[in-house]
Amino acid sequence: MGPIPPCVLLPVVVLAAVVAVATEENAFDDDYTWPQWKVPLVRKRRTVPLSSPNFSAHPQLELSGTCGIECQRHLPSPSLDDLEHYLSYETVYENGTRTYTSVSVQGLNEVTTWSRNTSSSSRNKREVYGTDTRFTISDKQFSTKYPFSTSVKISTGCSGVLVSPRHVLTAAHCIHDGKDYLDGVQKLRVGILKEKSRRGKGGKGRGGRGKGKRRKGEKDNEEEQEKDDNGANVDRKGNGKGRKSRSRRSAESEKPSFRWTRVKKTQVPKGWFKGVADGLAADYDYAVLELKKAPKVKYMDLGVIPSVKKLPAGRIHFSGFDDDRPGNLVYRFCSVSEESKDLLYQYCDAKPGSSGSGVYIRLKESGKKNWKRKIIGIFSGHQWVDVNGDGMQQDYNVAVRITPLKYAQICYWVHGDSSECQVT
């Protein structure tokens, strides 16, 4: 057989390349695209008044005795009645009154079953271990822009994340210790980092620029700020000896300040209350706060992902207000070490104060070319966990993941109408 003419060979090579690229792109899209879930419906059954709380509990820097991933493998799966009991909730209003709302769950069998992760790995104490890998977002050019601007400070000493124009998602233990509400919850406030200082408000004075004017090269689009997720343009503790970066000069000349807003009502699932969900309290360490006034800040949507470890990067991100860096927003990212359907173990360095931060990842939207960040969990913090149910305690950094059921409940709290929460 003689040589194949180039005029015949070239189209074949081009066609093969096109097919290979298309196959690669499809695989890429599958791996990097937000999955769409059909979510069960959480509906209100009945609301009854309760006596006012004592507001006598004190904040806990570390939780102890919670049942972790290994411990939970020995527990039976909860029934529908159990789940409805755990997802029923208390609401505390700003005037100190309290109600209890029971719920029903519909369409649970239509949700794809999550596979149980049975892998195990050795873990060390990871509050901050070895080299501190956290980044201080001290320059207001970044700390008051998306996605960092979604992070808020809770007056009880925790962090939270905006999930609607006037709703904040945080950890339940920042509000309630399992037996009573914390002292200070009756006057609960949420702090949002101010974009400009009082001087030069909207003008050209220090801390402000002319109204509507923008520095050359400044970007508003969240997709153009992706370098922040990888640590660029932020201040890593211990780097840059001998010279001051722009972000450090900014931190020294303009200390971060907050705009505080009162909380109208607080909602906590009964699954968090001690004696209700035996051994499962860690799974329900989340709460939603409704603000009296909506801050003019962009919020972050919720998302559901079946496995973080199976993602190509397997990496999570979150920002909060760690106690050891007062007033500063602290960002970090790391890989997930182990996961179950309700919990994430990870090695992200953190200090008390970051509890309640929104854990997020970034994937492509289905059928679109743009990328979007969504919250897939709530950072619960450094915990002492009962590993096997035998009383032996080990310490981990734990995040509570957003499941389809939790998505349905949080979405219902935010919208007040479960019909708006059927698909993620």
According to CATH, what is the class?
Answer: Mainly Beta
Poorly predicted parts: 6-28, 112-125, 200-253
Give average pLDDT, whole number: 77
CATH architectural label: Beta Barrel
The name of the CATH topology is Thrombin, subunit H
Number of strands: 18
Q: How does the major sheet shape up?
A: 9 strands, mixed
Keywords: Glycoprotein, Secreted, Serine protease homolog, Signal
Protein name: Inactive serine protease 35
GO cellular component, one term: extracellular region
Main location: secreted
Could you name the key traits of this structure?
secreted; Thrombin, subunit H; 15% helix; 6 helices; six-stranded antiparallel beta barrel; alpha+beta; 424 residues; nine-stranded mixed β-sheet
